[in-house]
Amino acid sequence: MLANRITLIYVLLMTAVVVASNVLVQYPLSGELFGIALGDLLTYGAFTYPVAFLITDLTNRQFGPRVARRVVAAGFVVAVAFSFAVSMPRIAIASGSAFLAGQLLDIAVFNRLRRQSWWRAPLIASLIGSVLDTVIFFSFAFAPVFSIFGPNDDFAIAWAPILGIFQAEAPRWISWAMGDFSVKVLVGVVMLLPYGALMTKLKPMPSLEKVA
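^ that's the sequence the OP posted. Answer follows.
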């Protein structure tokens, strides 16, 4: 059945994005921007991970929230398995929890906005999902209050100038979260281009159109 084949493609794409992001997160960016050492804030994985929201939104547009949740579930299994294999349990828990919560929130917001302007649902859904994803991951991974998941990273919780350039200080993981979210916002806006190009080809299923 065509719908099953397309769904499988979405699952494979989501799996590829999750695996790529888990690999690329190990490689910091090089260079500086406005005096900020990018390697202290970002990895290449920050640029690939937001593509997961594009895949989720395209699935949701074409097949609805139920199928989108199945695609997210497949990505969640891969994320957790891969993270436990290559990183500490605390990071794996943070990664899996953030991915699942952020993507499910994206699906819910997208579904509420799908009848509005074509750009509104994917943009707002991905941004709101990214907020939750960022908060959960960096809090679970580094905030001392969540040390129940594993030992604290002394370097991450040490206080330092925010983003490495401001006089005000905060735990380093706060700056990491700010840098990561900034990239998610940027990539989320850029992802409107492929979404807009594909939405004319990936029409919603008739059952979804009848609900409109």
